[in-house]
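Researcher: Go.
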Amino acid sequence: MKFMKLGSKPDTFQDQGKSIRYVLSELATDVTIIVGEVIFYLHKFPLLSMSNRLQKLVSKANEENSDVIQLVDFPGGPKAFEICAKFCYGMTVTLNPYNVVAARFAAEYLEMTEEVDRGNLIFKIEVFLNSSVFRSWKDSIIVLQTTKSLQPWSEDLKVVGRCIDSIASKTSMDPSSITWSYTYNRKVAVSDKITEVGMKFPGKLESVPKDWWVEDICELEIDLYKRVMVAVKSKGRMDGSVIGEALRTYAMRWLPDSIEALVSEAHSIRNKSLLETIICLLPSDKGVTCSCSFLLKLLKVAILVGADDSSRDELVKGISLKLDEASVNDLLIPARSPQTTVYDVELVKCLVNRFMARERSSRDKNIPPKSTNDFILGHASWLKVGKLIDGYLAEIARDPNVSLSIFIELLQSIPDSARPIHDALYEAIDIYLQEHSSLTKAEKKHLCSLMDVRKLTMDASMHAAQNECLPLRTVVQVLFFEQIRAAAGVQTLNHRNTDAVDFTRMTEKEYWQKTLPEKQNVLKPLSEIKIKGEDRQKNMKLVKKGSKNRSSGPQLMPSRSRRIFDKLFIGKVSGNGENRSSETSGSSQSPTLRIIQGEMKSSCCTSSRNRRNSIS
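Model: Structure:
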């Protein structure tokens, strides 16, 4: 911080009750000047030799036979007038960033110009501002803060504009050329050289970050902060990501954390104005430069304080561009009346629809993926949003005011390709069924039909098979597809064992015959068919033996689930093919039943073929 001293003579104060007597000399005084509650007893000659305005006021007072002059609306008050009076008397005057603006305006008020005397106070203060204050990063911010209480003088004398230009110019400098101190408490490392609390000097081994300046200007009031940020953006040298970080830091500094403080009558107007200012300062590409979490927090505050629709739409537009970066907690935005739900589900549905619409349009412009792996690599954002919304569904499922239609609409807003696994969706549906026990069987059936049991993992399938909240049809489907999965594993094991046995018994000639095209091997000896049929039967017996021991091979299904499956499934397909369950009743057979019957026929045919081979 810079100081300036002028003159060297003593002064004294005398307290006189409500007023203060200020005496600059022991000699008899001939003029009394009142500034606020302070009375100054001074001599005319030193003052008149430096101030053109005092010359006019003293002349007017003499015409009225009075030696009292009262200065109304004096900028800076008594302290600023004291500096001017000391300068007139040749006493020591100390100028610093905290009082230099007030002294400058007081000198302007008293017309202490070069026309009155060379080297007058206005000239000296201007030299101090240009050569010292505006060259300093910290001092420029301090001076800008002091101008708040000195309107309209600050604007008339263009001190505010000069401070803002000084600050904006320094933020646009190359970080490698920064040599002054700055505040940086967000990512302070252990190796940083801290000279005092919150103060950091850039070291030789560590480069200065691009956002080194954002914390220092957070101390400004919102109107001054807005003007500084507009000037910084107008320079055109600052990355949008740094602008976004600066706004995020300012919002964290001034916006309260609690909902009660946000909506309180004492601060709601201020918070609303602050929020709308931050939103208007967001970069045009806010969806790229600002984090999704920050934008969602701004949207949450905007809803709570009742910001205008245009501000909300700007935030929604930016959030929909990068919804895949959000977390479930970010989406938990409290709902406002007339909504009856705890969280604003309609808003989240709007965000998802906008995100999916943009993703579909961008996908249509690109070449379609050749495989599922290509799709996953090219559309990772889809998978992230699918996982995000499934987690959000689990949160809102606990709300008794979330209707089934709203829950299903949000569930269906995510395409099937964004849900390769349905474990999280199953968890959300399970919670919803537990919290909404009044649902009818048809509603439960419809909700569970939106879940693909084939996309459940082993753990989720075993949990669903024993879940009493699920409809009977869903449990049967889970058991059936789990049975198919287990059977596929056993079939793979059988195939591997059969190939191993056949290979050990195969001669070199037989090996080459097997590798020939099928047309050359149509006629095979009957004995060879018989041997292979017997080997296959032996392997089947080995598998059945191994299934009794859990450690010896894969299990088809736990005994309890198998009993449920046998009781439900065999009962459904036995008889004349009639459906005896109310869960699967209908004029036509369901796809599940057709698959089951086809599977049973296939197994029967396979069994008969095995018997024919063994007999031959």
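Model: The mean pLDDT is 76.
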